# Entry
Amino acid sequence: MSAVPNAQPRIEPMRMRDIDAVVGIERNAYSFPWTRLNFSDSLASGYSAWACRSGGELVAYAVMMLVLDEAHLLNVTVAPDWQRRGCGMLMMHHLFSTARAHGAKRMFLEVRPSNESGIALYRRCGFERIGLRRAYYPASPGREDAVVMAVDL
Ligand SMILES: CC(C)(COP(=O)(O)OP(=O)(O)OC[C@H]1O[C@@H](n2cnc3c(N)ncnc32)[C@H](O)[C@@H]1OP(=O)(O)O)[C@@H](O)C(=O)NCCC(=O)NCCS
# Structure
């Protein structure tokens, strides 16, 4: 379905019934996508998982793990047709306020150094690079490092 220009995106908890749409976007957005099981396990584990809809269409989603005073952002993705329209930033603000409400003081994430749009979004949200995990991600060929980023909440 194509983008609906006037439908204001809104964010709701991700549910099992959203997973087909989520996996469809995930496969378009990544060379090494999360599997259906990754998402269903996240929901079953009680992770903080969110779906953003516009006019009924699922356009973005995110999964975050909240542990004590730390939040770990595991996945934030916007459907390719909806990128650069503010949904990523909307989701990040939602994640920040959710994490703060749970008492988190800091948010962490890993990102591929080759992911320019992800890194640009995170920098825009105040994240700073705090480390590097060598050969963290599958890549073709071989493995790719992960940049570790964090922001105070
Ligand atoms: C990264 C991603 C979530 C950004 O979502 P988005 O909805 O396109 O981002 P927004 O429109 O809210 O952009 C917010 C800001 O992020 C930065 N940004 C986002 N995409 C960018 C790009 N392709 N190039 C440069 N900067 C970018 C900009 O600063 C932008 O502000 P601006 O549009 O005013 O310049 C989206 O590109 C995506 O889903 N990519 C594929 C999945 C992915 O890589 N997720 C991150 C995994 S770690």
